[in-house]
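Colleagues,

For the teaching module next term, I've prepared a clean inverse folding example: a structure given as tokens, and then the sequence designed for it. I'd like students to try predicting residues themselves before seeing the answer, so please don't circulate the second half yet.
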């Protein structure tokens, strides 16, 4: 596999080994489009990424263990705020599907359900920073670093990573917690832009190395206790972030 060779090459391994640590007080996890339209309802995506669910769940557990913020971004594509829809529909006329919208009641994937106090927001385009209020929310809460994961690697994950990078955030993408419509598209995206427009973390093991141990985190708790609390808190009590004004 070309991508594996790229990720395990000496220069790549050296870059990964010298990543700066992630500070819990100023780092957020941004979950991109992990929703039924792109995962449980898409056999094309699920086929090549059997480890996706466990990687996403592990990353969420790590951030929650360290009491670090999590933002869930969802596709919200409608004519009033997404002027690109007619052109996209024309390009994909042979495989047209309803566009997802971010309206309650929301349906979440079981392995990526928001916990109490986590933020959920809709995005009108492929980029999580365009017309969403995400950048303002992150800055207001003291965040300067974002770790991204989700769907689809070559589209919304990439666009969102670029948007956060261009807005001045340290941006990292967790590769094994991303998936695409085929392994080739996923690997091509990572090879083209990993460590160019964002820092690449090949696996959740690499993420763990950048985080303090629970004992090093103020108020750190054991994984078993945190997992039990997470399960109890996985209720529809998330916070919907008010959208920025939709483009006219």
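(Answer key — instructors only)
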């Amino acid at each position: 596999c070309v991508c594996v060779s790229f990720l395990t090459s000496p220069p790549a391994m050296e870059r990964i080994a010298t990543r700066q640590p992630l500070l819990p007080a100023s780092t957020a996890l941004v979950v991109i489009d992990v929703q039924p339209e792109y995962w449980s309802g898409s056999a094309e995506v699920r086929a090549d990424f059997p480890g996706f669910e466990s990687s996403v769940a592990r990353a969420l557990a790590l951030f929650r263990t360290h009491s670090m913020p999590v933002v869930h971004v969802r596709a919200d594509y409608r004519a009033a705020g997404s002027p690109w829809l007619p052109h996209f529909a024309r390009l994909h006329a042979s495989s047209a599907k309803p566009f997802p919208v971010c309206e309650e009641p929301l349906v979440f994937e079981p392995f990526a359900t928001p916990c109490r106090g986590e933020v959920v927001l809709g995005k009108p385009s492929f980029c999580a920073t365009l017309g969403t209020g995400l950048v303002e929310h992150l800055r207001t809460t003291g965040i300067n670093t974002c770790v991204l994961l989700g769907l689809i690697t070559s589209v919304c994950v990439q666009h969102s990573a670029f948007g956060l990078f261009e807005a001045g955030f340290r941006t990292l993408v967790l590769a094994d917690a991303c998936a695409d419509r085929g392994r080739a598209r996923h690997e091509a995206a990572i090879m083209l832009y990993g460590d160019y427009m964002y820092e690449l973390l090949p696996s959740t093991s690499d993420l763990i190395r950048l985080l303090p141990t629970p004992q090093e985190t103020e108020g750190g708790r054991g994984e078993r206790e945190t997992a039990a609390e997470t399960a109890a808190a996985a209720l529809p009590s998330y916070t919907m972030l008010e959208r920025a004004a939709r483009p006219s």
